[in-house]
Write a structure and sequence with these properties.
With about 220 residues, this protein is α+β, with helices and mostly antiparallel strands. It contains 3 helices and 14 strands. It has helices at about 1-10, 30-40, 120-125; strands at about 15, 45-55, 60-70, 75-80, 85, 90-95, 100-105, 110, 125-135, 140-150, 155-165, 170-175, 180-190, 210-215. The strands form 2 sheets. The chain has a 12-stranded mixed β-sheet. The chain has a two-stranded antiparallel sheet with strand order 1-8. A hairpin with a 2-residue loop joins strand 3 and strand 4 (about 75-80). The longest helix is centred in the N-terminal third of the chain and has 15 residues, at about 30-40. It is globular, with a radius of gyration of 17 Å. It starts with a helix and ends with a strand.
């Protein structure tokens, strides 16, 4: 489980850069749904997601763990098990409690974190988008949208399940070419909370006994 989380949360799946050889195809209905959700989230001061993170191989989830995700503007905090990631708007901090290690790095544009909302932006350049109709997900009559990479990036396809009435994400499934699968199923969503002013600040003093590496 820890290896899967390291790959999906810390390293991310590589996404293709701009300048694709193939023409991108985006279904108009799917685009409208995703743009509406994006606008809804962006209109909030902040958002909070409580979710279950599932992982497995051959398309089958075999393990699940709880996770939380806070976002405000372009800043975020993501935590699954004993792994935490903070983006303060400038640097990404990957914190591993088990390894007592912190790595810091500037975003390089070549990877994307698997979060409740990351595909709302990356789909615009990196994926063909098709609308797949309605599917029942945890009691929600959700719109099903399939993302297929325009250029090979390690991902076979991504499934997005959306509550269009509430303009919220319900579930994300990411299927890799290596047959790994990662799933985020959102359990609770809150917005415009009074967050700690230091929510997205990395406090080095809390990790005095950790190995801190600046990549």
């Amino acid at each position: 489980m820890k290896n899967i989380i390291s790959k999906v949360i810390l390293s991310g799946f590589v996404v293709g850069a701009a300048g694709f050889a193939n023409a991108q195809k985006i279904d108009a209905k799917a685009k409208k749904i995703l743009d509406d959700i994006t606008a809804n989230y962006k209109s909030k001061k902040n958002s909070y997601f409580k979710f279950s993170f599932g992982s497995g191989v051959n398309g089958q989830v075999t393990k699940t763990e709880p996770g939380i995700y806070y976002t405000a503007g372009d800043k975020y905090k993501l935590k699954i098990m004993d792994t935490e990631q903070i983006f303060d708007g400038n640097k990404i901090y990957n914190i591993s409690v088990d390894d007592m290690e912190v790595t810091t790095a500037k975003p390089n544009g070549n990877s994307t974190m698997f979060s409740p909302i990351n595909y709302l932006t990356t789909y615009r350049n990196d994926y063909n988008v098709t609308y797949g109709g309605k599917k029942s997900v945890n009691g929600v009559n959700a719109d099903f949208i399939k993302l297929t990479p325009v250029k090979s990036n390690g991902i076979k396809y991504v499934y997005l399940f959306v509550d269009s009435a509430k303009k919220q994400m319900v579930k994300i499934e990411q299927h890799g070419n290596n047959k790994d699968v990662a799933v985020i199923a959102i359990k609770d969503y809150k917005e415009n909370q009074d967050l700690d002013p230091n929510m997205f600040v990395f406090d080095k003093n809390k990790y005095k006994n950790y190995v801190i590496t600046d990549l």
